[in-house]
Design brief:
By secondary structure, this protein is of the alpha+beta class. Helices cover 40% and strands 18% of the residues. The two termini are 61 Å apart. GO terms for molecular function: ATP binding.
Length: 854
Amino acid sequence: MKIMKGIARFLGVDGDRSAPPPRYVGLADGLVITETHAEAWYLLGSSNTDLMSEAARDAEQDQASSALARTLAGYDCHLKILWSPLNAEDYRTEAETLFSAGNYGAWADLRVSRLEELELPTRMLLLGVRISERANQAKARGSRGVQDALGIGSTSVSQKELARLDALTRRLGRQLETTPWKAQPATVELLAWMIAREQRRGTPLPAPDEQGMISGAKLAQLTRGRVLPYPDHVRILDQRGETVGWSAVLTMDGFPEEMESPGPGEWLRSVAEITYVPELMDDDEVGDISALPVNPEPSVRFKVLHKRDALKQIDEIRRLAKEQRQSAAKHSAGETAQEIEETEETMTSLSRDMKREDVTLLEDHPRLIVSSDVSLEDLRSRCDAVIGFYGGVGIEVSVAAEEQRELWLEAQPGDMLRVPDLMHTRTVGAFAGSWFWGGASVGDDTGPVIGYLTGSTPGVVRNDLTGGSERGDATTTAFIGRSGRGKTTAMMLSLLDSGFRGSFVLALDFKGDMGGLVSAGQRYGLNAHLIETGSQFAGVADLFTLLSGESAERAQTEVPAQLGIALPQHLRMRGAETPIQSAVNECIAEGDPATWKVIERLRQSPDELTRETGDALYELSLTGLGAPFMGKPVGSSLITPSPGIWVVQVPGITLPSPDDARDDWSVHQRLSVALVHSLLAYGISMAGRKDLRGLRKVVAVPEVHVLTATREGSSFLQYIARVGRALHTALVVDTQDPESLASLTGLVEQMTTVFGFQLTTGEQQDAMAALLDLPKGPHTRQLIQAIGVDVTQEIRHGHCIMRDRRFSSATVQFDVPSVEMLQLLNTTPKADSGSGTGESPVSMSKPEYQEANA
């Protein structure tokens, strides 16, 4: 038998080219069962390798090599990389569980429309392993024709056999789960989709039966399509006999002797990077044509050799090379070909490495399946792009001629190796260096969609500002980068999602450019309000009003402290704090207290110091900074502890530094500190109230360096960050200065997500690298420098590096779902300061919108 196999392989007819297509008899979770054998199928996870450090990459590649050598040795394996189109309509259904406030249906529809426009595919990594040969396979092959003719064929799988196969699948799965691939048994629905998609079956996928299987007629309908083979492609026909797609199988004929990883050696990961320019149609505009992804689908059948078999094969090659060298030395020329000497040395070195380390050989048969739904010419353009891409890295790829049928069948799950001619033998380390599981992956598994990946693999990015508490995790998110790169707009988009999730959102807008958040919230039915400094908003930040419920007792001490901050130094030195406390106590005793009533009581006192204190505070309450926290209200309070968005704009405040003596504070500084004190006290009380523990709460602080410059502000930020998980409160900060942020240990320790935008100085870039969990050095500095510009060195708004809660980092593009939304959230100086009215602050053309979302 071995002699016959050897002759067949020599003649190039090893494998069964003429074998019939696989006949499926059952699908179950993790199992594809045919008449002749059973395969275990696993869904592999992706690793985020784009920004991974060199040491981490080397360690993970070693783990993958070890898994191939130990876990999969001796198995016939089938690796498939598939592309699943994003079903944007699923997000509409998901919105019912994500959102609960405002007109969230329209908000979800807006995002769905944008996702449909982006057409982002999802990469699926699937690994099949042949785990069992069915005992009746020979009988089945011989009697199939007779049974089919008589109509008595049976495709049932006994419960005993199914249980045995399931046990084998789970046992192997437990070993693969601990690898970098984090393998999980593929669901029966996923396996049905994988089989049906090969023939473009448009029928709904069948549901499994009570035992979780798909068999019989349900299984037969998955493969009831027609495929016509041609010399250089196959055509897929629908039920009416019309062509619905064209596919071509490409073979990888030759590889360089050495390939670098990272780099050209990642020949399986890089399939996502292949693009082509489609030919112009009659109705196409020249300006609309751009490079499109080809998305070829690799299908690699491989087998890892046991180490003893690999060593035997290496020794045979080394001995043959040695004999050729000795034979050449005996001739008159006495010269040995350099290739023979190099082969002998290489085999000797490889044999030594295999004996010392966990290395063995692997035989693989790589194919690339290129498909098109447009035309045959479009398919050939795609094939040329694939051939040219790999040719640029030294890999020979060609369209298989006259064997498209055999290679197309060979790529089907449950089939067999049919064309063994182009076999490649390499070490498991070299195959792991292809990084088929590598790419870009970052963000939450569920939650609102905020944008898309811009790394080596496409996909959507999700992030939920309020999800940390539910996971029992930290709750702080940071947006960091220089001005004008889109970080505030990105934060507002995330705050909108939080508002639709039924959260209480308090944004302390020290720069005064977040009014568009209110406009956008009102546009989609959220309870959104804009509060500004000035007499028209007198009393909105009165601590007696803000500190309600369980926090009401705090007002008895917080109000005197706040008025003491605003009080002129000479009155405080004379002991004016005591009359203030007395007036506060009397107002509380009378009921319905308010800060303006405290001031009126002070002004009516017969005591001279008390009257002077009241008059001084009254005059200060008439200023733009004093009116919000101690002025007499002109209407009802706007800030209430209920779901909604409140943007408090306090532009122009001047806070003293921690080193400034209190005696040296100016009037403007005193009022600024007093107003911020009111807002911070409210934020702390809201977070700590027991009756509001079930309410999602978000405190957002743009330009956070305004607060970090003071002791009170730093203490507030670190307090909210540390207790946020327990109190269901998320802290969101925005800053241009990562160095000062890094000094707040309590805040940095609680960061669950970081968005890093462009920075240009080395010190700030190093501080950013530490927060993003990236290695410090010239490469990371260059990455942070380039993240905010496009290929023409123009500003690319919303482009950043995201570090998620798993400490994975990848490049991300925040995506504004519509031109109207971009207008509403505009933060440029051209925007109308009264944007809280709901009117669009500026007009923006579609090209500008596309540029902003580049």
